[in-house]
Amino acid sequence: MNSEVRNLEPKALWNNFADLNAVPRPSKKEERVIQFITEFGEKLGLETIRDKVGNVIIRKPATSAMEKRQPVVLQSHLDMVHQKNADTDFDFDKQGIEMYVDGDWVRANGTTLGADNGLGVAAIMALLESTDIPHPDIEALFTIDEETGMTGAMGLEGGLLKGQILLNLDTEEDDEINIGCAGGVDVTAKRFYNEEVVPENTVAYKIIVKGLKGGHSGMEIHCGYGNSNKIMNRLLFDGFENFGLRIAEVEGGGLRNAIPRESFATVVVDKVHHDAFALEFNQLATEIKKELKYTDPNLHITAEVVTTPEAVMELGVQEGITRAIYAAHNGVYKMSASMDDLVETSNNIARVVIKDGKIKISCLTRSSVESSKLDLVNALRSCFELVGCEVRFSGSYPGWTPNVESPILKVLKAKYTELFEEEPGVVACHAGLECGILGQNYPDMDMISFGPTIKGAHSPDERASISSSEKFWKYLTEIICNIPHK
């Protein structure tokens, strides 16, 4: 299946991507990919360093006549988001990604593709092993754990890098040059509840919400895609209000930086309401699907009769937590006043688990303005604390302030216009890039971000454009040849 990917042009890029995708590399479990990239550098005879947190740095000296150019850091992250469809049999800890070509796109078979940020890693690998591309001194920086905390970037010590320019290869639209990004913080609400005996004369249902598009909770939060946790809660709230529905358990969503696509709940309803509940449920499900028919045409909402569970959650807590989830903000909170069409602040209700006497709700709040981020997290905190939850903030990371006077930006804009006969978009994004964090220890480093077109990142619909990847490679190699003098 992956052989057709290896035959794509440029082969140096796609073969390295295929090699990388053969290595399991979930966030927090990067030992195998760290070893892979370390051995790659050592086999090339290049200086290869692993720092104390697991980042890998590979240094390649300048080619002839390029020694007087400014040294460059090429940076991408090694980890990838692991998401799969519910009906896909795949073990991310043991299997490599199964890829195939679909027209102009490379896709994965029922899982995330890992083009975020694997294509950036592969491009750097291709430059490191090249013998015919002129370049200044290169420091290849491969960071870990970007997707679940950015601990690699946070743990990189100051003074370790010598480069004066940093090219981050983690942007997902090939006609854009990124000069800023949002910061973020995890918001987690927890509480315990008592379990109660299932009321007599009830019928149990398993409610399933699936088929949503999902996607990147930063880059695609403005698209209006359905959130499975909010949809499920809407169904539960309606069932409780009209028929006294009781919740046995709920599990929805996955990673905090992915818009949740699926949610599952086990509930019970008094048998006397069986027919009326089924009718009301189907009517509401139809209405929700109509609301989302343009953004999520494959949405499925079903309720099937199942074996009665052993217990349900206590009534008072159920009523409070469903109201809190209903009230908690999800999606765009505020648009930027300084840049057109830029989301300033947002929240993703990423995961909801209610089971065995425990509630856990996980959110990722993003903002390019620190005070606005604090405003939203306090709103979420208040919402959940009002129903007895303990709320904690963790994993906070800063945004990256745009510098429109960046010298390397001028180089990239001019080269793009020369190569492609149009001007690129100069943007800031609502995703979390590592530049803001790296800039804390390297404040004088001139940073920029760009990359090939990738769609559906953080979901099994992730796909990478083949033509765009060829364009990206051409652009990157031209930039490397035209780095300014010291």
UniProtKB/TrEMBL annotation:
One of its GO terms (cellular component) is cytosol. One of its GO terms (biological process) is proteolysis. It catalyses: Hydrolysis of dipeptides, preferentially hydrophobic dipeptides including prolyl amino acids. Residues 210-293 form the Peptidase M20 dimerisation domain. One of its GO terms (molecular function) is metallodipeptidase activity. Keywords: Cobalt, Hydrolase, Metal-binding, Metalloprotease, Protease, Zinc. Its EC number is 3.4.13.18. Signal peptide: none annotated. It is an enzyme of class 3 (hydrolase). The keyword Nucleotide-binding does not apply. Its cofactor is Co(2+); Zn(2+). Belongs to the peptidase M20C family. NCBIfam families: aa-his-dipept (TIGR01893). This is Cytosol non-specific dipeptidase. It comes from Neptunitalea chrysea. The lineage of its organism: Bacteria, Pseudomonadati, Bacteroidota, Flavobacteriia, Flavobacteriales. The gene is pepD.
